[in-house]
Design a protein that fits this description.
97 residues; alpha+beta; Alpha-Beta Plaits; four-stranded antiparallel β-sheet; 4 helices; 41% helix; globular
């Protein structure tokens, strides 16, 4: 499985219903679990992004389904990045020409 980091901001709708945010997180975790992905980390942050979420998923298509399903509900606007572990990073660097 691969790691994906989502940098997330609340939309106006998400802020207006901020007290529902924990329930939305639970629903997000259920979506992930239903399609063989796992939330490995969740952080409320201060600064440019309001939340950081780390997901372990089998492939980019699975992550796209998760993000599109979640974003379509209108409470968040995510930016998702593939992430490499230190071991993967070292392997990539060692294979450079």
């Amino acid at each position: 499985m691969a790691k994906y980091i989502s940098l997330v901001n609340y939309t106006q709708k998400g802020v207006e219903n901020i007290k529902d945010s924990p329930n939305r997180l639970d629903a997000f975790k259920q979506v992930c679990q239903s399609i063989r992905a796992k939330v490995e980390g969740f952080y409320l942050t201060m600064g440019r992004y309001g939340l950081v979420v780390i997901v372990d998923a089998p492939d980019p298509e699975t992550v796209a389904k998760i993000i599109l399903t979640t974003a379509s509900r209108g409470a968040i606007s995510p930016e998702t990045l593939p992430a490499f572990t230190e071991e993967e990073y070292r392997k990539i660097i060692s294979e450079l020409p």
